[in-house]
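Help wanted!
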Amino acid sequence: MSDNSVFPGDKIASIEEYEAGNNTFDDGDMVRAAAVGEKNMDKETRVVDINHPKLLSVPKVGDVIIGTVAAVMSSMIAVTIDYINGNPTTSKVECICGTRNMRIRNVALVNDIASLKIVAHLNGTIHAVMNEPDLGIMFTKCRKCVGKVVSKSSDAIKCTDCGWIDERKLSSNFGKSNFVKLRE
Ligand SMILES: [Zn+2]
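Answered by r_m:
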């Protein structure tokens, strides 16, 4: 965080000097921050803005993320990142995870919750893997009837409604109740 970092409620300037811009409000006396971010005080327009710290929300190599599967392709999945090392993020950054070598037909479904480890940033794309026991799918549903599923092994699930058995690369944290609650 730099000297320009502000937290919600922080006083930034007198309303006689500056007008409230993006992510700020004026309390009748002072312009205050309405969001976490970096303040940007424009001396010409006399407007102060708070810029959201997007960079703070980009995971680094080695970080573990939890996200929502946004797309499933033949050789990879795209995941929208919701948590970085357990901290929520709202910046909606996506990472991709190759699935070609997994020998599992339905590694994940769209809207599944997955835990991944970031391994590289390449050409603007964030690459992740799920090849450790605690990585993989943490929440999923039945592909046939969208019913509730239980794990049968580390790579198989069974629907409690229709009995359909399917493959997934499950995390050892699959079915942990706090993440199920996140989705309901
Ligand atoms: Zn089912």
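OP: Thanks! One thing I noticed: Residues 142, 144-145, 147, 159, 161-162, 164 surround zinc ion (CB under 6 Å).
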